[in-house]
Write a structure and sequence with these properties.
Helix content: 10-25%
Number of helices: 6
Distance between the termini: 39 Å
Shape: globular
Radius of gyration: 16 Å
Largest sheet: 11 strands, antiparallel
Strand content: 35-45%
Number of strands: 11
Length: 213
């Protein structure tokens, strides 16, 4: 089963701008996760750049992310094509203009299921629940902080190296997913979604941008 781009963007809803708490000079993991808690419904604009050895240049898409509760997650791509991914309970539906609709069950993709469990825990601000699926570390300070999540289950580690959330002050700005093949995705959120990603940009270029104050 093909794993759609739902892996990063839907998790990134946990980083919706507006409403995160400010963090101190030495960010505490629990405080950072509490700051990511959101009440449904919530939505945010995004721009995502995906990098892979199979791509000559990054694949850049933009659109809207919507969270309506743990059993209802949506990702809508509006540029450069139209695509929607919807999770309803244990079912995933993928639709793209000009192609047949596809559906699959989360139980067929254990690593995605684990990631979504972590995502729901982030939205709940539940650090203990996040640690069930990830080892978690925080870094930086109030001006530029990071939250690093590494999967603990072998099934997830086969595809995913780590997830990094970057932000400054009270506003998360990036959600990056690094895979085990040297590629990954960088999601720019809210105001950062307006960033013009160049065709010759590299994964490290965007990771550096996310780390910058």
């Amino acid at each position: 089963c093909r794993i759609p781009a739902v892996l990063t963007p839907l998790l990134a809803l946990g980083c919706l701008a507006h409403g995160a708490t400010a963090f101190g000079a030495a960010p505490d993991v629990d405080a950072l996760i509490r700051g990511l808690a959101r009440k449904a419904p919530a939505s945010v604009a995004f721009t995502e750049a995906r990098f892979s050895a199979l791509l000559r240049e990054p694949l850049v898409v933009s659109g809207e992310l919507d969270y309506a509760g743990p059993a209802s997650l949506d990702r809508r791509v509006t540029e450069p094509y139209r695509e929607s991914t919807a999770i309803r309970g244990e079912s995933v539906r993928l639709e793209r203009d000009g192609e047949p609709e596809r559906t699959f069950a989360l139980k067929r993709v254990p690593e995605l299921r684990a990631l979504l469990s972590g995502f729901v825990a982030l939205l709940s601000g539940d650090a203990a629940a996040v640690r069930k699926d990830f080892s978690v570390e925080s870094g930086g300070d109030d001006a530029s902080w990071s939250l690093e999540l590494k999967p603990v289950e072998a099934s997830a580690r086969r595809r995913l190296t780590e997830i990094v959330v970057n932000g400054s002050g009270s506003e998360p700005r990036c959600f990056s997913m690094l895979d085990t093949r040297g590629g990954g995705s960088v999601l720019l959120l809210g105001a950062a979604a307006g960033t013009n990603v160049q065709k010759n940009a590299t994964l490290e270029d965007l990771l550096s941008l996310c780390r910058a104050e």
